[in-house]
Write a structure and sequence with these properties.
Elements lengths: L2 E2 L2 E6 L11 E9 L3 H12 L4 E5 L3 E3 L6 E3 H9 L3 H7 L1 E3 L1 E6 L7 E4 L11 E3 L2 H12 L5 E5 L2 E7 L4 E6 L4 E11 L6 H5 L5 E4 L3 E8 L9 E5 L8 E6 L4 E9 L4 H4 L2 H12 L6 E8 L2 E4 L4 E2 L2 E3 L5 E2 L7 H20 L7 H27 L4 H14 L47 E2 L2 E2 H5 L4 E4 L11 E4 L8 H6 L7 E4 L5 E5 L4 H11 L5
Parallel strand pairs: 3-4, 3-14, 4-11, 8-17, 14-23, 27-28
Antiparallel strand pairs: 1-2, 2-5, 6-10, 7-10, 8-9, 12-13, 13-14, 15-21, 16-19, 16-20, 17-18, 18-19, 21-24, 22-23, 25-26, 27-29, 29-30
Helix pairs in contact: 1-4, 1-8, 2-3, 8-9
């Protein structure tokens, strides 16, 4: 595996040449950053017909220790972008997690990350980030309206009332772009954030963790998440093991705070931990070793005029719980349809304030879960350790204690009950999916509900008379007889009921006896139009 400036290379692409020779280009949208978040946002906008420029400072797909766990919610997003099946085919599917304590070979607790069965996608797949990026890049290269520019680095940002002007440098030239909207998806060390003089607020945890991605040729091993508290191979600390494709395993070891980070990442020191976990005769090869510190921080706001922040450029969380990249993909999913409507003139730019509201809420929930996980995993006083050990002891036999075991609450979709885009219930509902919550998949004859919803506003009705309002597609279950029991149960549907579902598959309204006027009003609110 080659390296460029210390960064391992997975796939060489080479620097891109511009088609234009103009010193000042004009574009509707520029996405800065070609990680999963920037690529997913560009793919969403590109599939909707918009011209998009993507700038990547690298001219290759980086390998190394990055995201590997992609949640069901992210897989649903990938499905909507047309790449979900490719991700699942390439990844390692898993639904079961196990928590171990001490030298006991039996788990004190096991959990299922897909408690509601009969959905198209699993709870999680494990897939190296470079494979995810490869799949997204291949999809983008089939869109003639998306311009991927490799080796083009943003150097300056100047914002006006109706446009953003940026300076860009490649190996061969310097030029400027004037765009209507700039999406900053350029990671934790965001150049866009730096050039605008913005920063994070939050907490850095006093602990260090070692990631060892190793390739093993022998032994299949379980496609499960295994987490240890105080194991004999890392006494007094924690450890984690995940299976990846290609015979690669992610091993994670807590190291403590007062360490020599450079020495800890040296192969001879890393391999001491690996052999302690896997056994002295284990055969493995190094893929990537690194040491990191937890951070749970975010920007105060994600929308700054015509500059929109998403992913790690906007927020950072600890990796336990797989909330980093999954949270960033949720940002892209939330932002894409709203920016599409603004660009087409179907909504005012004020709609993007709802992106700020909802994405900040998502970041705060992820940060809260990650902070609690880290505090449980790394107790800093005797009382905290006594509480943790008591919970683990009780979890062996007592069901009530198991939800208190916190080895990293795994990423799930965040609900927005107070979103300004919701219409509150006016009817009594016993169950179902409340406004502000993500739609729940269900069998739909020979298909699946989420796949049928697509990427537009849908009125999911169980019997509807007349025409629906403009700009919403009717999906009437009343015309379908078989194979809908699970769907009706999950949505508490009965004849005459209906749900209004957003393009990102969030419920924004529901009724027992809707009429066209009520649906039109809820649709207008969901698109940020004045009421």
């Amino acid at each position: 595996m080659a390296n460029v400036a210390g960064i391992p290379v997975w796939r060489e692409i080479g620097a891109s040449a511009r088609a234009s020779r103009e010193p000042l280009e004009r574009h509707a949208v520029v996405v800065v950053g070609a990680g999963p978040v920037g690529l997913a946002l560009a793919l969403d906008l590109g599939r909707r017909g918009h011209r998009v420029v993507v700038l990547s400072r690298l001219d290759f797909v980086a390998a190394g220790s990055k995201a590997i766990c992609f949640s069901k919610r992210s897989l649903d997003i990938f499905d909507r972008l047309g790449v979900g099946q490719a991700m699942v085919d390439r990844g390692v599917t898993w639904n079961v997690g196990k928590v171990f304590w001490g030298a006991d070979s039996e788990p004190v607790y096991r959990f299922d990350v897909l408690p509601v069965k009969d959905q198209q996608r699993p709870g999680f797949i494990n897939l190296q980030q470079y494979h995810v990026e490869d799949i997204l890049i291949d999809a983008l290269q089939r869109l003639p309206n998306v311009d991927l520019r490799w080796g083009h680095r943003l150097t300056a940002v100047a914002q006006g009332e109706d446009a953003v002007e940026i300076a860009v440098r490649s190996a061969h030239e310097e030029y400027r772009i004037r765009c209507q909207w700039l999406a900053a998806c350029d990671g934790s060390r965001s150049t866009v954030r730096d050039r605008l003089g913005l920063d994070f607020e939050g907490r850095v945890f006093e602990d260090n963790f070692l990631i060892a991605d190793v390739r093993m040729d022998e032994g299949e091993g379980p496609a499960e998440r295994w987490f240890w508290f105080d194991p004999p191979f890392n006494p007094g600390q924690s450890a984690l093991m995940h299976k990846q494709p290609d015979g690669v395993w992610r091993l994670d070891f807590q190291l403590g705070w007062d360490i020599d980070r450079a020495a800890a990442a040296q192969p001879e020191n890393v391999e001491r931990y690996v052999r302690a976990m896997l056994g002295p005769r284990a055969k493995f090869r190094r893929e990537w070793y690194s040491v990191y510190t937890f951070q749970c921080r975010r920007m105060q706001r994600f929308v700054h005029g015509r500059v929109l922040f998403a992913g790690d450029s906007a927020h950072l969380v600890s990796p336990f719980g797989a909330r980093g990249c999954n949270g960033g993909l949720a940002d892209a999913d939330n932002l894409g349809w709203k920016l599409d409507r603004v660009l087409r003139g179907a909504a005012d730019a004020a709609l993007l304030h709802s992106y700020d509201f909802e994405a900040v809420l998502t970041a705060d929930e992820n940060i809260a879960h990650s902070s609690r996980s880290t505090d449980f995993m790394t107790p800093k006083c005797a009382a905290s350790r006594a509480y943790r050990d008591a919970v683990l002891e009780l979890a062996r036999d007592c069901a009530f204690a198991r939800p208190l075991v916190n080895s990293g609450r795994l990423s799930t979709a965040v609900s927005y009950p107070d979103s300004p885009l919701n219409t509150a219930d006016a009817d009594d509902w016993d169950g179902g999916v409340a406004p502000g919550s993500p739609a729940l998949d269900a069998p739909l004859g020979e298909g699946w509900l989420l796949r049928a919803l697509g990427d537009r506003f849908v009125l999911l009705a169980d019997g509807w008379r007349g025409e629906p309002p403009q700009d919403v597609e009717l999906y009437d279950l009343g015309a379908r007889a078989e194979g809908l029991d699970a769907l009706r149960a999950r949505y508490a549907l009965r004849p005459g009921s209906a749900y209004l579902i957003r393009p990102d598959h969030y419920v924004c309204a529901r009724w027992r006896r809707p009429d066209r006027v009520a649906v039109a009003a809820a649709l207008a609110r969901a698109q940020g139009r004045p009421q």
